[in-house]
What we know:
Blueprint: E1 19-20, H1 23-45, E2 50-56, H2 60-76, E3 79-85, H3 91-103, E4 109-112, H4 122-127, H5 140-147, H6 156-167, E5 176-180, H7 187-196, E6 200-204, H8 211-216, E7 220-223, E8 241-244, E9 248-250, H9 253-259, H10 264-273, E10 276-278, H11 283-286, E11 292-293, H12 300-319
Parallel strand pairs: 1-11, 2-3, 2-4, 5-6, 5-7, 7-8, 8-11
Antiparallel strand pairs: 9-10
Helix pairs in contact: 1-12, 2-12, 6-7, 6-12
Guanine binds at residues 111-114, 136, 156-157, 185, 304.
Amino acid sequence: MAExxxxxxxxxxxxxxxxxxxxxxxxxxxxxxxGEHVTEFVERVGRQPKLVAVLVGDDPASAxxxxxxxxxxERVGILGETLRLDAEVTHDTVADTVRTLIADDSVxxxxxxxxxxxxxxxxxxxxxxxxxxDVDGFHPASVGRLWSGRPALAPATPSGxxxxxxxxxxxxxxxxAVIVGRSNIVGKPMAALLLREHCTVTVCxxxxxxxxxVCRSGDLLIAAVGRTAMIGPDHVRDGAVVIxxxxxxxxxxxxxxxxxxxxxxxxRGFAKRGYSVVGDVDYHHAAPKAAAITPVPGGVGRLxxxxxxxxxxxxxRRRAGLDSE
Length: 325
Ligand code: GUN
């Protein structure tokens, strides 16, 4: 059966308020394009690209994330495998697993799902991932390439944010981007990517003084701290574009009612599952001030998965000699 054509992405309007930026639609566009390139890759190289995810232990969020990557791979014709290791596994076993995947010529992309259990030295494991297969972009050489302006596999979440902003035609050049959060996975690479787009970039963190005022100076506000609804309307400049990277579970029905007053869909979902997934931004109260804003769920999370898959294709093309760097 032919797939239904995708809805178009209507460009950003600076005069609108509360416009929802759709991560699901954007990721469908990205995956459709990746799928076309995968078909071309298979014709030219004679095999499918392959991604292997290493999942240690049984953290439910990690399992969900890895499963959605496997589904995305299937959708575009990439082989997606998950290697599951027991939570009590030794550091050396995880290291040997990664070394084996790096040595395997049929594998184009390797990612080790974080967090890893305490007995495993995560930094030492990430150092084993050959930058040519580093679809998460976490190896120090990948980080250095990104910051020095060379072609690099960049971390998926911030790359997804850039894709979303481009596809909605949000102007970036010369704009002030304020990032809240300085993690290696999101905040820091987000700063590198926004600098590449000619933004003026400020990175805030837990010790930033007068966070509200700094956030209010942003044309673009990116929340990536992992704290439920910590960014409220007082952090948002009128007409700013707000990107919510947070994915937090709340299990308190009173808090849910406060954050989403009168939202029947949320209430029903909560009643069924016993929790609700919310972002770092107090969406209901902040959205009316923003020109555009990403929801949670349905925002950045989807894009992360699409970009890991796009990175796998990019790694496969480079390894097959189809792209020069
Ligand atoms: N844990 C949370 N985010 C990520 C990610 O982007 N990649 C990996 N490997 N683990 C994560």
